[in-house]
């Protein structure tokens, strides 16, 4: 459908551009979700741009054949946030230069627009055409300031400021085809000037104000990587980074932006990685020890329903955290975005399961100390426990990925296998349930402690149930604050973006080390369990421990 454009009459050519804009608007969801559809529209735009070069932009009669409104509306759709996932797939394909072709077409459109001052704005694009004499100084889209000194008078400057072109152009430069720790941290500005200048000053407001490492003032060079294009800093120099603004100076005009590193300085990155990997290993080893001890004492310590559900909760907390750590290690080693969504899903699911099993422990404590005359069967308690412990996290995890993955807002791009914060706030699907459970467990603990201090509380429970309730209360009293503090610090770290998300997740797991060790000491090594383990030790072997446990009542 591209070649016939060459043969269209002037009026039909105008109608074609109008129809392209209208059809793109009506089929927006189909276009933004499909890389193939985006490629097709970019090819059409490229063809329109090539035809438009042959039309003199200074002839009034030809202006309506290249109505900027229709072109900008079409481009606005394919560069929207909804299309970021499709663009990520296109940029991962080394045989595609679609993003570069789109920018080249836009530069062509900017060069053939009529010589008259006007402004035009869509959701993601702002177009300005200005007549200038010896200098030009303006704020573009309130986030980019430009100052140009011209060497002649009577010139025209055309600018297009893009709010979302960082979704389209990959953050690669001339030295590296894939910069996973670099991001486009300013709006992209396309500049066309009919005169000549070697003095261009630009000030960009940073998209992420927390990023301060390795700012680069760059322009898009179409010739790199077999004409796929990349960012280049030749002729551009960095001046300052102050108050959330980056200042640059360039001696030429084209399409500009700024690149900044999302990672911590390399001088400490290796040491931090080493410490965190060791930390995760200690965490996983502690959990394995926890599960072995549970296997040893299971029969002796599950004589009543309360104790049984308590140990079921302990095992599932340990298993959930262990599996989450395993998936985290898998995610930390992945580079390709194609595998990051499922990895993030399982990490999200099992971390949520960890908290919901903590909630089960709290509800069990509430049930045994408050509802003393209510008795649920073991099968009923198990059904409730597994439905809440794994069913609720599954629903939350599925809804999160279904509602955010399509728009490319599920994960933090190529930064880490973890939920997105800056774009869709998908991280709230973990933060809100986790901190809500911590708060509920605190309330349960307060109520239970008040009830236990009242005279006669112990008379309502059998000895075994009372002992189990006391142990559960002790666990919640220590583990709940640790969970709240650990993840509260983690959430604070994410919100302020002090380090990149990859390092944040390692930090989470490091903080879990103390939690896991406390989990072992408080939940496992209680007085009754140490007695059982002593009996096992005296009896001789781990095989005897696991297969022939003693039958002592506790």
Automatic annotation (TrEMBL):
Single GO biological process annotation from the record: cell surface receptor signaling pathway
Q: Domain named G-protein coupled receptors family 2 profile: which ranges?
A: 272-541
Principal localization?
A: membrane
Q: List the InterPro entries hit by this protein, alphabetically.
A: Adhesion_GPCR, AGRL2-4_GAIN_subdom_A, GAIN_B, GAIN_dom_sf, GPCR_2-like_7TM, GPCR_2_secretin-like, GPS
Q: Which keywords does this Swiss-Prot/TrEMBL entry list?
A: Cell membrane, Disulfide bond, Glycoprotein, Membrane, Transmembrane, Transmembrane helix
Naming one, the record's GO cellular component terms include: plasma membrane
Stretches assigned to the GAIN-B domain: 116-266
List, alphabetically, the PROSITE patterns matched.
G_PROTEIN_RECEP_F2_4 (PS50261), GAIN_B (PS50221)
MF terms from GO for this chain are: G protein-coupled receptor activity
The domain of life for this entry's organism is Eukaryota
- Membrane topology recorded in Swiss-Prot or TrEMBL: Multi-pass membrane protein
Q: Which residues cross the membrane?
A: 268-293, 314-335, 347-367, 379-406, 426-450, 471-500, 512-534
Subcellular localization is given as: Cell membrane
Q: Which Pfam families match?
A: 7tm_2, GAIN, GPS
- Protein family membership: Belongs to the G-protein coupled receptor 2 family. Adhesion G-protein coupled receptor (ADGR) subfamily.
Name recorded for this polypeptide? Adhesion G protein-coupled receptor F7
